[in-house]
Every structure is written in structure tokens, then in C-alpha cells.
Amino acid sequence: MRLHQLPLETWMVVNVSEPKRDVVSLHASRDAAETERDQRNRGLTERRFSAFIAFEPVSERMGRPCG
65, exposed or middle or buried, with CB in 10 Å at 0-12, 13-18, 19+? Predict the structure, then answer.
């Protein structure tokens, strides 16, 4: 998923083992995202899934004046 396509203020479970960082699922709460992340990582030798929230696509406005 491209940066400008990320849902803002939505918790996501992301597969971080892939070079392109695939979004696996979307959640309304931090608790739900972290629960799914923990379930997906259970039994894995290396953690592949993380929970994130995107507040705004900051990198898209870098280099532009604030305000």
C-alpha cells in the first residue's frame, strides 16, 4: 500500500518481513490491532507482524513551508 493510500488514524497490522511492508488488516482500536499482531507472531522464531497507526503522511509535505 502506498503512503498516500494509508488510512489515517486507523490501527493496522503490518507484515514487516517483506520489503514492501504489506498491510494485513485494519482495526478501530489499538487493543484489537495488538491482539491480532500477537496472535500472528505466536510461535514464530522472528517477529513478522507489527501494529501501527498513521496520523498523517508527513513525508508527502516535507520540503513545503508549514502553515
Answer: exposed
Burial of 60 (0-12, 13-18, 19+ CB in 10 A): exposed
Nearest Cα residue to 11 out of 60, 58, 50, 59: 50
Element (H, E) at 6: none
Which residue type, as a one-letter code, is found at position 3? L
Whole-angstrom distance, CA of residue 60 vs CA of residue 52:
18
Give the full edge-to-edge strand order of the sheet including 22-27.
22-27, 11-15, 49-53
Cell numbers 503522511 correspond to what residue? 57
Q: pTM, whole model, 2 decimals?
A: 0.71
Kindly give the parts of the chain with pLDDT less than 50. Answer: none
Select from 36, 16, 35, 17 the least CA-distant residue to 25: 36
